Amino acid sequence: MIVTRFTFNAFAENTYVLHDETKACLIVDPGCYDKSEQLLLSDFIKTQGLQVTRLINTHCHIDHVLGNKYVVDTYQVDFAIHEADLPTLRAQVVFAPRYGITNYEEQLPTHYLTENESVRFGNTELQVLFTPGHAPGHVVFYHEPSGQLIGGDVLFQRSIGRTDLPGGNYETLLKSIKTKLFPLPDATIVYPGHGPNTTIGEEKKHNPFLR
Fold it and tell me: Where are the transmembrane segments (predicted)?
């Protein structure tokens, strides 16, 4: 599985395009806000000869959903979230103007993800892990063969997701990390929703929130 990262919008949110040798691809958390960011994403997909098969969100805070409608409209694909995060998604119509975002358009999901469901594209299969705490319906996507995890805003390099937004809970987040992420192999690469990559092993040793 090949992972390509784009950093979009004023929140420096990481959007991921996943693809394999079949050229099928999956878009995770499109944060593309303006026309230039949308064009950057679509030009990459076009020049790489990729076929978008699906859109998925780790969670539905505004910085991770700004490009949802653009992706669905452009590629006519299925869009999936965890059902517990639907209220979070619906609330962004209200929250967006508070952040100075005036052109946000809501895109509702066509499918709900469940724990341990397999998300497939091309020859690749991702496992869905339910990891609430930062958001009530947060999920992450694990590719066991390559040891890669698309982690959203659960675990960062030397940090963890914030829990002061509606639906957040500090103890729940710590439990998600310790019971769902830390059992993964230490070499697992974590691709977070913000900032640089890290590994499970590095965060076990050095994350000050998890000692």
Answer: none
